[in-house]
Amino acid sequence: MMERIQVGLGDRAYEIVIGPGARALAADLTGRRNFLVTDSRVAELWGSWAAKEIPQAGSFVFPAGERHKTPETVVSICRRAAELRFDRKARFVALGGGVVGDMTGFAAAIYMRGAGFVQIPTTLLAMVDSSVGGKTGVDIPEGKNLIGAFHQPEQVLIDPDFLATLPPGELRCGLAEILKTGVIFDEALFAELERDPDSLTVAPDYARFVPLIRRSCELKAQVVAADEREAGIRALLNYGHTFGHAVELLSDFSIGHGEGVAVGMCCAGELAARLGLWTRKEAERQKRAIAALGLPVALPRHCTVPAMLEAMRRDKKNRDGAIALVLPRRIGAAEVNRDVADAEIGAALEAVHA
Ligand SMILES: NC(=O)c1ccc[n+]([C@@H]2O[C@H](COP(=O)([O-])OP(=O)(O)OC[C@H]3O[C@@H](n4cnc5c(N)ncnc54)[C@H](O)[C@@H]3O)[C@@H](O)[C@H]2O)c1
Ligand SMILES: O=C(O)C(=O)C[C@@H](O)[C@H](O)[C@H](O)COP(=O)(O)O
Ligand SMILES: [Zn+2]
């Protein structure tokens, strides 16, 4: 059975359809010319399915991986669309993980000053987070997602059957974003991930993923509808990211986004315990859950305190040079804090070092 969640954004409202077989709805993408965008790995695994089942007037495949989430790739996507004579009525179709979704959405936002797009996520991370909410963009050497646009998709088709080909490491990255959502909004969601973690990673019981995807999308849809452009509550979705993005950048994007978020949550959890915002017991509970899912809990040595602080200063939440952090109050609640001294942040980072 398909579940449907509305993202309530007035005349830009859209539906998220979730369920095994949801990808078959791509056959209904008719009436406009579709431009399929995907990466090399997804093309290898799912390209023949897409060629048969998604009506398309052209496609573009770029090399898989975060290192290709660049302005250059977005320009290549737009140039291919122009070469194929797509006009403003084009519908860009993002088939892939968060990298494909973020770049296809950004290309759609700027192609002829705005075309439509649909998200068909194929990683767990994209199903529970990146395909919803309209944050699109690319990385530059100065920082993660520093160039981009808010551009909402027209529809999101989430088919958990894509997970069958996803390696365990990528499943873990998606679990990190679900855990994040649990820490900031929903203790029950967090507790569900504490239960039998091996059945989510080592020997995946795929039936467990559907309710996790549904709950994550439901919460994200509510937040996005309330605060599309991150003027308030949406910033909480950035929990673990101020630290995590810095780790990704300092690691030359060799670690997964979800891994960065996992270690970033450990940094935020340690800092919150030192500041007395939550208890040491809660920080330890979060760390245990992250470790049990096989995600990293220690900051790599090359992420020195000065390098981390420098990278964190480029975060988009910052104002007037002060680092803004999302810090937990308990499992299920968090807040934005703009008043933490660099020395406090540095001490917490030292404590999380490997
Ligand atoms: N826009 C947002 O709100 C938002 C939210 C979270 C993350 N993100 C972004 O998403 C990106 C991370 O996304 P990701 O973790 O999906 O990474 P990804 O898109 O790089 O995918 C990870 C790997 O899995 C492969 N893959 C994809 N689907 C597969 C499948 N079904 N079977 C086998 N392999 C498959 C990809 O080719 C890639 O090699 C980051 O750039 C992050 O910044 C954006
Ligand atoms: O949708 C949001 O808002 C998020 O912050 C979700 C994050 O998981 C995601 O990684 C997002 O791309 C980070 O946004 P950024 O504004 O820090 O680039
Ligand atoms: Zn994220």
From TrEMBL:
Ranges where the 3-dehydroquinate synthase N-terminal domain occurs:
60-172
Question: What keywords were assigned to this record?
Answer: Amino-acid biosynthesis, Aromatic amino acid biosynthesis, Cobalt, Cytoplasm, Lyase, Metal-binding, NAD, Nucleotide-binding, Zinc
| All residue ranges annotated as the 3-dehydroquinate synthase C-terminal domain in the record | 174-318
Q: Can you say where in the cell this protein is located?
A: Cytoplasm
Which EC number(s) are documented for this chain?
Answer: 4.2.3.4
Q: Which HAMAP family match?
A: DHQ_synthase
Protein name per Swiss-Prot or TrEMBL: 3-dehydroquinate synthase
- Tell me the CDD domains matching this sequence: DHQS (cd08195)
Gene3D superfamilies documented for this protein:
3.40.50.1970, Dehydroquinate synthase-like - alpha domain (1.20.1090.10)
Output the Gene Ontology cellular-component terms: cytoplasm
Species name: Victivallis lenta
Q: What pathway does the UniProt record associate with this protein? A: Metabolic intermediate biosynthesis; chorismate biosynthesis; chorismate from D-erythrose 4-phosphate and phosphoenolpyruvate: step 2/7
